[in-house]
# Entry
Amino acid sequence: MATVELRNLRKTYLHEEIIKGISLAITDREFVVFVGPSGCGKSTLLRMIAGLEDISAGDLLIDGQRVNDTDPARRGVAMVFQSYALYPHMNVYRNMEFSLRLAGMPEAERRRRIGDVARILQLDPYLDHRPGQLSGGQRQRVAIGRAIVRNPRVFLFDEPLSNLDAALRGQMRVELASLHRRLGATTIYVTHDQVEAMTMADRIVVLNRGVVEQIGTPLELYHRPRNLFVARFMGSPAMNLLPARIHALTPDGMAQVQAGAVSVSIPTRHGGPEAGTAGTLGIRPEHILIDPQGAITGMVTISERLGAITLLHVRLTDGQMIVVQTGGDNTDRADTPIRLTLGEEHCHLFDADGMALAREADHPLLSDL
Amino acid sequence: MARTRTRLRQGVVTILGWAIALWMFFPILWMFLTGFKNEPDAISTPPHLFFSPTLSSYRDVFAREDYWHFATNSVVISVLATVVALLVSIPAAYAMAFLPGPRTRMTLLWMLSTRMLPPVGVLVPIYLLARATGLLDSRTGLIVIYMLTNLPITVWMLYTFFREVPVPILEAGRMDGATRWQEVTQVLMPLALPGIASTGLLSLILCWNETFWSLNLTSSIAAPLTTFIASFSSPEGLFFAKLSAASTLAVAPIMVFGWASQKQLVRGLTFGAVK
# Structure
């Protein structure tokens, strides 16, 4: 199908730079997710690739050809909009037919293609319905169908699931993932939902204020966040971050870290931190263990029982709040004292500038990276 | 108790509503009735409530002037002025609604402000321009004037309607390969059709009722129905019955038309107010 390459793309709008030089090479058949908080520029970047926004500077290449000044339809990209943006005055068939008709495709060919796509998306019974007569999930399918019939080189999705309820969103997520495997089209997908990003992406691009914070596979981002922003953004519940000071560094690479009442020694790779510097200690809620012999003491303030897991919000003796993820069978209630230990090999360490320091521990699937 | 009071209040409101409606409708009713009186009945004070209706005034009106000539002028001028106004204002409103620049807002306000000018203020220049271009007493002249004077209103209305159309739908059209022309004709216009229709209707009514320019810029060839009515006042004194008959004839087509398109008009004018 197609490769997409962004070379130092910039977007300036009313003297303000929104996209500040983004470079990225997307390989054929790859599923790339742009994720970031609202206003980070992810939708703007997608619209620049679509051709709906002008590119202020830099080059956009699809299949090696510069398409900065090419009309959207001639770029060979199709887009699914957040609001679906179906044509309300046309039935489902006409909605899917519109682009084919404009492209001058013969009637028989149009009919065959729409028939195929309708079968894949189970839309056959609704072909003569208007969008207004369809449910949210069905409209979503029509929007996807409208993109598929064109047989585009690249699919663009702009937060396509955010208007659906939670159950349907989960279902559509799986459908989209399997559709991607089936069609094998290069896909760029924008979302603010990191669950969507984690579950669907081959690679995730974390954006913040118009710059790339990190690009990597979902597990890379989760286990090796490059900086505090990514650490904070990826993972739910979010990583616990405590202001810390590195006291000493042993010859075997153990960093003695003090964060308030918490004292841990973290295995680091060489070239790591220097003794005496300030930084941030990060630990994910699932890596904090409840341990009656634990050195860290605190008080449970809230216990959120999600069924399979329980999230304990704990106030440490030094007043800091942390979240601990534990099993669904946990019985701790609010206002009970608790003792904890940190899985030291799972701790993250960030320097004063918020950049992560290399660490020893890793996820088994990441070892070959 | 409370229910009887509500019902009482409803009754009062209903009567009040009818009273106001009749009060406002009265001049039209009176005109309509007077058209069927003979001249002495028409000017008698106190007016005769009961009279033997006669078509003599209508006969006189038809005998003196060629009604169909004026009526044709009215139809041709109103329809063409409206069509041209729409042809000009649809692209204008599109540009202002979807490709606004830093001065779009001011342009819109300025356009509207021209509508607040009393037409008589520009009578002399317009008259001279019309004479210089040979457009005096021509349908084309009135079409141009009507089209131009209604443009601020049609552009504003269409602008408002277009703003209600979700932009992503137009963008989807662009992604699907629609040219600007196809985007407007195949996506935007079908979606804004109620708005375009009511804009057209309003323009039609305004053109039909326009009197100032038609009186000043036409005499016989291009004169529409408003001139036809006026011709029954002045010279030989006032003939109320004949004047009323002529007015009824002039007003009837647009009233019937307005009545028939009432639903469309209301729907268009309240478009977006209720989702």
The domain at 57-269 of chain B is CATH 1.10.3720.10 (MetI-like fold). DSSP finds 14 helices and no strands in chain B. The radius of gyration of chain B is 23 Å.
